[in-house]
Each structure stands twice: as structure tokens, then as C-alpha cells.
């Protein structure tokens, strides 16, 4: 079980002295005697996103900075200055922190062990991530196992993708389609006249020619063997003159 975190809230002076405790914290810095700081500057880095704002007094005026975790701010030190910051203590780091190294808020400093993500490494990477490897901040999978796609690999590839493989970003079938299918996600059906039920994934044109009695790029035209209507019947999309039209033209010329 992960160790309990954030059992006490503290307010510290710039020298680490505890001046207030409690939950929630209510603290206002006292006024200080003027001290010459020679207009120096100091960089302040908060410990955590939930930390209270940094507070200090400068020239007898109360100042407050709302800082986010891992961000920094530069404070000009003038005649009067004393800084205070909120902090929290914990009774141990999460076992999922690398080397069990965490700050006072329980946030893992070196990152998470494989299979976990989040500030405290208590979130589990999706089981559809390859080797349970995911981004330690967002939880997004680096790569998906076969058959899945999306940031967290929770979306299913089309069942007609060849080998069940599709692009992790957009779900398009990257290795082509199963026999009889075409389209980016193999959601279209090849013409029934295609030989071996094989057609181009993008255009749908039959790749191996046509079955007997079928013709055209898409093999969607069929000969009619009836004597009274010899020639061609249109079945589906037609481009250019039919074979029957060509026969009629040659007989009249």
C-alpha cells in the first residue's frame, strides 16, 4: 500500500523556522524592521501545485505570489523583506517513486517506476500500452499493443485492418486491408467482380484483374449472354464507353 502523504501543513520562514501549523492554514506575515538588502534579487521555487502562495513584506506592504509547482519567480529585495512559504510533511514516499525519492508533498522527484504515472506515481498506465510504458505526466502510452490506438490506447483498430494493425495517432490501417476491403480504415467493400477479392486500398481498383464475365477497372460491368441483348450491362459506377457501345460503333462504320 502507498504510504500516507500530507499529514501536516506548515508555514516556514526563509530560514526554515516553523511559524504556523494547521489545516487550513491562516497566516499573515508580521511587520519587520527595515533592513538594507541592497536591491538584491532572489529566485523562489515552490514545492508543489497545492502549496499556499509565497508571501512577504516589502516596504511594510504585504505581497503575495500565486506560484504553480515547478515554476519560479524573481522577487526584488528592497528595504524590508522576510519570506514565508507553505509546506507539508509526509510519513514516507510512494513505493512507485524511483528510489522512493519524493519531496515533502509526496511528489516523486526522480519520476515513476515502469507502469505508473502522476505526481505521486499512484496512477497505473493503461494495460494496452506496450510494456505498460506511458508518459509520467500525462499517462499517454508511448506505443500501443496490436489492435489498439489513441493517446491511451483504448480505441480499437478496425477489425478489417490487415494483421489488426493501425496507426496509433489516427487509427488508419497501416498494413493494408483484409481481402475484400478498402479505404483508410478498410470500411469499404471491393467490387464483387474483383479477382481474388483484392483491390487497391485507396482507389478500390481491382489489382488482380476481374472474375470471369466481368470487366472495367472496378470489375463492375458484366456481359449479358442473352442473344437479344448481347453486350454490356452497367452495374455500379461506369467510366467511358461500354464494350457493347464499341461493338455497335464498329458495325455501323
- Helix content, binned percent: under 10%
Strand runs, count: 16
Tell the overall outline. Answer: rod-shaped
Mean pLDDT: 69
Radius of gyration: 35 Å
Biggest sheet: strand arrangement: 2-1-7-4-5
Low-confidence stretches: 1-8, 31-60, 65-81, 226-253
Largest sheet: 5 strands, antiparallel
InterPro entries: MEGF10/SREC1/2-like
Keywords: EGF-like domain, Receptor
GO molecular function: scavenger receptor activity
Protein name: Scavenger receptor class F member 2
Architecture overview:
GO terms for molecular function: scavenger receptor activity. Keywords: EGF-like domain, Receptor. It comes from Magallana gigas. This protein starts with 7 loop residues before the first strand and ends with a helix. The protein contains one helix and 16 strands. It has one helix at residues 243-252; strands spanning 8-13, 18-21, 41-44, 54-58, 61-65, 73-76, 83-89, 116-117, 123-124, 148-149, 155-156, 181-182, 188-189, 214-215, 221-224, 231-234. With 253 residues, it is mainly beta. It has a domain at 8-89. Helix content is 4%, strand content 23%. The strands form six sheets. It has a five-stranded antiparallel β-sheet with strand order 2-1-7-4-5, with no helix packed on it. It has a three-stranded antiparallel β-sheet with strand order 14-15-16, with helices on one face. Strands 3-6 form a two-stranded antiparallel sheet. The chain is rod-shaped and about 95 Å long.
